[in-house]
Amino acid sequence: MENQTVTATRFRFLNILLWGNTVALSWVWGLGLFFSVQFTVEFGMTGLLAFLIPNCLGLFIFGAVCDRIARRQSGSESLAIFFTNWSRPFRLVFFLYQIIALSLTFFALIRYGWQPLGLRPDSLYLPLTALIILAAGILFGEEFSIRRIKYSHAGFLALIICCASVILAELGSPYLRGIHCHGILTTHDLNFWGYVIPICIGFLVGPWLDLQQWQRAIQMHREKTSITASYAFGAVLFGAILLFHGVLALWAMKGFTNNHIQTGLAGYPYAESLLTRVFSASPANPWLLGAYLTFLSGCILTTLDSGYIALKWFFKSNATKSKSIVFSILPERLLTSPIPAFILCSIIAVTGAAIGIELEYFMIFFATFFVGYSALAISRAFVNGPVNVIPQVKMFCIGSLAVVIFSYGYFLHQPAFQILASLLPLGYVIWLMLKPFVGEDFTTDNEELEEPSVASVVSLNPVGTILTTASTGTHDISGHFEDKWFVHTFIATYADTNSVGNVYFGMYAMWVGKTRELFFNRLMPKFNLKETPFYILTRSFEHKFVRETKEFETVSVKIRVASHNRKFATLEHEIYDSSGSLLGKGSQSLLFVSSFDYKMLDIPQDVVNAFIAYA
Question: What is the largest CA-CA distance in the chain?
Fold first, then answer.
């Protein structure tokens, strides 16, 4: 028994390391990998740490918070259920975030890993290089699922470590003696903070809109692996990779800066391709150059295959749930395939590389546009109220305004505008949460269409008076409680009878079903079938007929919770006529399934809380 416990502990620890590794590698995308070089060249070791620390913290905090969310309810599917319900208003934003992130990653490897090699003509080598990257990302994405990706990424990590070892061995002692810890710009002015503040904001909230991280956290919870521990290890490993890359840039700055840093649009120095230029400079060391390019390719491919798997998961989930006519016309294989999205990303990347734009132009969206959505998503996960509805038009306008303000600040060398642009979406989300009469601004289109106006109610009333809700009591049309029994009273009519004038036997079950719906509606009035993470299904139903009734007889149906365990709830019912005579009685058993994949669930906590007083 003790040996089994030790083995299980070792397996859990190994699983934490494997998942932590794939978390780190999926987060080493084009922005983190290459902008760490740019910021290090500009501001030295201070810049590297200012970029690295919030990046790692944002990753770890996301994992720790997801772990807490997953533990709100029992069951291995609790986090998946939460994500399905919580993410529904953000589906388009999730897609845009993933497209821009993958386009940026394609672009970064082409622009800073291949173009500095100087192969000509561009019209031939540029599309061929993009095709190689595209095919490799799709190949690894198709070969490995989310369950197996941790093993393929373990192999990639071994390759990355080997490449780093070759680089260090080839550089030797000059590498250790040649580190230059200061950048080409000072850190004592507003220009430094014009970058640092947007970086801190963008990376601290960034993982919340990354499908790759959500898919990993959900799978960890299914495998009963600590999400917090895995993300802690992943953040440390991710930081180590960025630190290695940044320190390489510090070494390259000594003696190579003037020759390999280019001045681009608006007079800014761009150094993302510094290391590729240095390692490929004549006379080139083939081992050093080959190891570095392999290092870059390994880091980039672990983001692309992760993105492919995450998009496939995302598309399949939406295709099965959407009621759009598009999903019924187009083939399912086309709708759920990430290949068209990958082709779009490669086209964006090739176009950007061909016209010579830089990484910062992609980065601006993660420091501005997506910040408001991320903040609203975080609020929606913890705050009940207006943040649960997304004012899409307003959020898009604020995000676009932030992008424009940041752009003006960047091109005009006014860092105060850059800071303002990153803070604007955060401030707007806080305003949405706190302003007076906030509920008026968060009415959805469906609510406006479905809620009848007073005028329409009056016009439907044949005598011209305003209809009002019946008073609570025995004759309340919505039912009432008698101790723990819920009672619905009505009059049987001709439609309930058969050919001989007695009530048709099937109507008794129909009455019980209607009473059950009113019972549920009374105790869970906010239950929304379109957004619920669970469905309530009838497992069995039985009824014993005692006596008959007839047309225009007053009938009372009583129902209550008889018993329940972890999985099933039993309701019992009794039916009486106006004289109090028992017409029949019976019971029914209910079970609960996930609205996502129809797997059986424990009784949801929302149901327990609503019905516990009547159990």
Answer: 105
pLDDT above 70 covers a percentage of the chain that reads 86
Mean predicted lDDT score pLDDT of the chain? 84
Question: Considering the domain boundaries, does residue 466 fall inside one?
Answer: no
Asked if 553 and 573 sit in the same domain, the reply is yes
475 — phi, psi (to 5°)? -105, 20
Contact 99, 344 (CB under 8 A): yes
| Cα(294)–Cα(304) distance, integer angstroms | 15
* Phi, then psi, of 548 in degrees rounded to 5: -95, 165
Contact, 211 vs 313, CB < 8 A? yes
- Predicted confidence at residue 367, as pLDDT, reads 93
Write out the two tokens for 528.
């929304």
Give whole-number Cα distances, 181 to 192, 246, 249, 303, 370, in Å.
16, 10, 10, 29, 33
How many residues in total does the chain contain?
A: 615
Rg (CA), the chain: 31
- Could you list the residue range(s) of the whole structural domain that residue 255 is in? 11-367
Residue type, 434: L
pLDDT digit string (tens) for 566-600?
A: 888 899 999 998 888 899 999 999 998 888 778 88
Q: Which residue has the higher pLDDT, 187 or 440?
A: 187
User: What's the predicted TM-score (pTM) here?
Assistant: 0.71
Q: What are the distances in angstroms from CA 295 to CA 40, 160, 161, 164, 178?
A: 19, 5, 8, 7, 21
Pair 174, 209 in one domain: yes
DSSP line for 160-209: HHHHHHHHHHHH-HHHHHT-----SS-SSSHHHHHHHHHHHHHHHHGGGG
Cα separation of 189 and 184, whole Å?
A: 13
Q: Which residues are paired to 590 by β-bridges?
A: 538, 569
Q: Are residues 236 and 116 in the same domain?
A: yes
Phi, psi of 455 (to 5 degrees): -60, -40
CA distance 79 to 67: 8
Query: CA-to-CA distance for 351 and 126, rounded, in angstroms?
Result: 10
User: Do 17 and 128 lie in a common domain?
Assistant: yes
Q: Is the pLDDT of residue 404 over 90?
A: yes
